[in-house]
């Protein structure tokens, strides 16, 4: 979004994922391959609907890269309800899809899918899947034993704290607290832990549910969905690390140029990160940039000769030079 009142050909008000419908915006589309490498970008007017953006981007990608089959992979909160309706309510949907479900909010998922029978099959050390069908709708239930243990521990901690509050501070300290609300039962002013709610909550432990119209094996559906984090990571960087916002330009062409420059910077960032990962070096981008910014060259004069003295490498700054194929600066350089 942009802090501009007037609209232009590109700067339009539309569905805002940032909940800023009062501001005009651009719609930015980034295509990322399976390894997280940004391969293309498109910019549309801010009032472009999800489905329109999908159709136009995919048409261009098909032309450029000879892409045939398309599967839309998304979380329910990632695309608009209109787009979800178009994808799921028509037999001839425009694309195949794999959609993450809101387990607690969708009654069919919480009451039928999660309670369905069937055995899990292993996909990875911490991923098991099983297929459940409700009518013509196909769901894939995914289970992570490690995450399940974390969910149990987190709930036990909440219940322990809740019990202490009820015993020592009374009902008033609990009522209105959203973190405790789903586990309490209020009757005639008395607050107790709702054991039925606790048991019901346990069926969500370590699970996530996908809905798909593809004929892919359940294991492949889960694997494809898990790769969604690469796209989400890209957009988190695009909106935060690279500081696309705020955009101070007044014209469409200069605003788009600003976004394109950010995309090029994103490619450089992903490239360096992948090179570091290949060498087994783990470092957050913010830490790495902080380490590199502390690298300085100090000019000194000694006996009539000038030198540049490099400061010490901090953190993974040295590894960043080596991974990118750039020779690290010498400790002392005579001018």
Task: Write up this protein.
The protein is of the alpha+beta class. The protein contains eleven helices and 13 strands. The chain starts with 25 loop residues before the first strand and ends with a strand.
List the helices and strands and how they pair.
Elements (H helix, E strand, L loop, with lengths): L25 E7 L5 E8 L4 H16 L5 E4 L6 H8 L7 E5 L6 H7 L7 E4 L2 E8 L2 E7 L1 H25 L8 H4 L2 E4 L2 E4 L1 H8 L4 E6 L5 H9 L1 H14 L10 H27 L6 H9 L3 E6 L2 E6 L6 H8 L7 E3 L1
Parallel strand pairs: 3-4
Antiparallel strand pairs: 1-2, 4-10, 5-6, 6-7, 7-10, 8-9, 11-12, 12-13
Helix pairs in contact: 9-11
pLDDT under 50 segments (min length 5)? none
Estimated share of beta-strand residues: 15-25%
Helicity, in percent?
Answer: 40-55%
Strand neighbour order, sheet with most strands: 3-4-10-7-6-5
Number of strands: 13
Quick check: average pLDDT?
Answer: 85
> How is the main sheet built?
6 strands, mixed
Encode the helix/strand succession as letters.
EEHEHEHEEEHHEEHEHHHHEEHE
C-alpha termini separation:
48 Å
SS class = alpha+beta
Count of discrete alpha- or pi-helical segments spanning 4 or more residues: 11
Radius of gyration: 26 Å
User: Which shape, going by the Cα principal axes?
Assistant: globular
């Amino acid at each position: 979004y942009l802090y501009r009142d007037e609209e232009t050909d590109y700067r339009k008000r539309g569905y805002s994922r940032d909940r800023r419908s009062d501001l005009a915006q651009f719609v930015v589309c980034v295509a990322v391959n399976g390894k997280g490498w940004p391969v293309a970008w498109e910019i549309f007017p801010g009032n472009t609907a999800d489905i329109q953006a999908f159709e136009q981007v995919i048409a261009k990608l098909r032309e450029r890269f000879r892409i045939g089959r398309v599967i839309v992979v998304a979380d329910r909160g990632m695309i608009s309800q209109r787009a979800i309706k178009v994808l799921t309510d028509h037999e001839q949907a425009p694309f195949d899809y794999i959609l993450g479900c809101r387990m607690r909010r969708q009654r069919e998922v919480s009451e039928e899918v999660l309670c369905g029978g069937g055995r899990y099959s292993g996909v990875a050390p911490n991923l098991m899947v099983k297929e459940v069908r409700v009518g013509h709708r196909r769901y894939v239930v995914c289970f992570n034993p490690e995450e399940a243990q974390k969910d149990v521990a987190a709930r036990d901690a909440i219940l322990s704290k809740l019990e202490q509050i009820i015993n020592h501070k009374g009902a008033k300290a609990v009522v209105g607290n959203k973190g405790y609300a789903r586990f309490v039962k209020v009757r005639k002013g008395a607050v107790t832990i709702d054991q039925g709610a606790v048991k019901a909550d346990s069926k969500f432990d370590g699970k996530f549910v996908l809905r798909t119209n593809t004929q892919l094996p359940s294991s492949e559906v889960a694997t494809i969905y898990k790769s969604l984090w690469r796209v989400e990571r890209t957009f988190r960087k695009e909106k935060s690390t690279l500081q696309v916002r705020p955009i101070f330009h007044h014209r469409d062409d200069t605003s788009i140029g600003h976004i394109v420059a950010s995309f090029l910077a994103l490619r450089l960032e992903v490239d360096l990160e992948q090179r570091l990962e290949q060498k087994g070096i783990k470092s957050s981008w913010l830490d790495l940039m902080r380490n590199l910014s502390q690298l300085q060259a100090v000019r000194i004069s000694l006996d009539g000769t000038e030198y540049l003295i490099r400061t010490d490498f901090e953190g993974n700054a040295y590894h960043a030079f080596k991974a990118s194929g750039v020779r690290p600066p010498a400790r002392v350089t005579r001018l």
